[in-house]
C-alpha cells in the first residue's frame, strides 16, 4: 500500500509520499511514487501515485512519452497544456486508458487493477492547483475549505491535518504537519514505509524549491517523531474526565 499527501496553501505547496509498495514477512518492495515535471520559470507539475504498480508506472511512462514526442502539443503533453485543469484532464484520461488496458488483460483471471493520483502544480500566469484523480479519470480539486488531498492509507494521518492545517499555514509548519501525518501512518500501518520523498513548491516559484529523500534512521525525523510522542503523552496525562 502507500500514503501520499499534498497541501495547497497561500505560500505554496508541500507534498510527501512513502515508497513502500508491497509488504509482507519476506516481501518488501520500494518504488518511487513522486514524479516531478518542470520547466523552471514556466511551469512545475508533481504527480504522486497510489495503487497498482503496473497501472501507475505505465501511466507515468506514457505521459513521458507524450512529452518527448516530436509532435507533442497542448492536447497531448502536460508540459504544453494551457492550464492546470487541462493537465488534470490529460492525466486523468491517460490513467483511465491504462487502467482499462490492464483490466482487459486481467479479466480472464477475474482480477482488476486500480490506481489514484495527486496532481499539483502551477503554470506561468496561472494559479497553483491540486487535484485528486480517481481510477476512472475523473477528479476533485483542493479548495480553501479542504486545503489538502490524500491517497492510499490516509485515515491514520488525517486527524492532525484536520486540526492544524489551514490555507494560511506557513510552509515550515506545513512540512512539520505532513511529516507528523506520515509518522502517525508509519506507526499504525506496516504497508507504509520509509524512505520518504518530500517536495516544496513556493507560490509563483514555478519550480521545486526543495526536494529530498528522508531515509530510514534519519536523525531529524526520529527526533521529531519522539517529540510528538512525548507531547501526546504529556497532553493525555493532563486531561481529566
Protein model, in words:
The chain is an alpha+beta fold. The protein has one domain: Glutamine Phosphoribosylpyrophosphate, subunit 1, domain 1 (4-Layer Sandwich). Helix content is 35%, strand content 27%. It has helices at 53-68, 84-106, 158-164, 171-188, 219-238; strands spanning 3-8, 12-17, 20-22, 29-30, 34-39, 43-51, 115-123, 129-133, 139-141, 148-152, 196-202, 210-214. A five-stranded antiparallel sheet has the order 10-1-2-11-12, covered by helices on one side. It has a five-stranded antiparallel sheet with strand order 5-6-7-8-9. Strands 3-4 form a two-stranded antiparallel ribbon. A hairpin with a 3-residue loop joins strand 1 and strand 2 (12-17). Helix 1 (53-68) crosses helix 2. It is globular and about 65 Å long. The model has no long low-confidence stretch (mean pLDDT 94).
Question: Can you tag this structure with a few keywords?
Answer:
241 residues; alpha+beta; 5-stranded antiparallel beta sheet; 5 helices; 12 strands
Write the CATH fold name. Answer: Glutamine Phosphoribosylpyrophosphate, subunit 1, domain 1
**What form results from the Cα inertia axes?**
globular
Structural class: alpha+beta
Helix coverage percent of residues? 25-40%
Strand order in the sheet with the most strands: 10-1-2-11-12
Please work out how many helical segments DSSP would assign: 5
How much is the average pLDDT? 94
Low-confidence stretches: none
CATH level-four homologous superfamily name: Aminohydrolase, N-terminal nucleophile (Ntn) domain
CATH top level class name = Alpha Beta
Instruction: Spell out the helices and strands N to C.
Output: EEEEEEHHEEEEHHEEH
Q: How many β-strands, per DSSP? A: 12
Approximately how much beta-strand content do the residues carry?
Answer: 25-35%
Distance between the termini: 38 Å
**Major sheet attributes:** 5 strands, antiparallel
CATH architecture: 4-Layer Sandwich
The count of domains is 1
Rg is 18 Å
Amino acid at each position: 500500500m502507500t500514503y501520499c499527501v499534498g497541501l495547497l496553501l497561500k505560500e505554496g505547496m508541500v507534498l510527501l509520499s512513502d515508497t513502500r509498495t508491497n509488504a509482507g514477512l519476506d516481501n518488501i518492495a520500494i518504488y518511487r511514487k513522486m514524479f516531478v515535471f518542470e520547466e523552471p520559470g514556466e511551469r512545475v507539475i508533481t504527480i504522486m501515485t497510489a495503487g497498482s504498480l503496473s497501472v501507475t508506472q505505465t501511466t507515468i511512462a506514457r505521459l513521458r512519452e507524450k512529452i518527448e514526442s516530436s509532435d507533442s502539443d497542448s492536447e497531448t503533453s502536460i508540459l504544453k497544456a494551457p492550464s492546470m485543469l487541462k493537465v488534470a484532464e490529460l492525466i486523468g484520461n491517460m490513467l483511465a486508458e491504462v487502467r482499462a488496458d490492464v483490466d482487459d488483460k486481467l479479466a480472464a483471471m477475474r482480477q482488476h487493477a486500480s490506481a489514484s493520483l495527486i496532481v499539483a502544480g502551477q503554470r506561468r500566469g496561472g494559479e497553483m492547483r491540486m487535484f485528486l484523480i480517481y481510477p476512472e479519470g475523473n477528479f476533485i480539486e483542493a479548495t480553501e475549505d479542504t486545503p489538502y488531498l490524500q491517497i492510499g492509507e490516509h485515515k491514520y494521518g488525517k486527524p492532525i491535518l484536520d486540526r492544524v492545517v489551514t490555507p494560511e499555514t506557513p510552509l515550515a509548519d506545513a512540512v512539520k504537519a505532513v511529516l507528523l501525518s506520515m509518522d502517525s501512518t508509519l506507526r499504525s500501518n506496516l504497508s507504509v514505509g520509509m524512505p520518504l520523498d518530500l517536495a516544496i513548491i513556493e507560490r509563483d516559484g514555478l519550480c521545486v524549491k526543495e526536494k529530498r529523500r528522508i531515509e530510514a534512521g534519519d536523525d531529524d525525523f526520529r527526533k521529531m517523531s519522539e517529540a510528538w510522542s512525548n507531547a501526546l503523552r504529556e497532553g493525555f496525562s493532563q486531561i481529566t474526565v
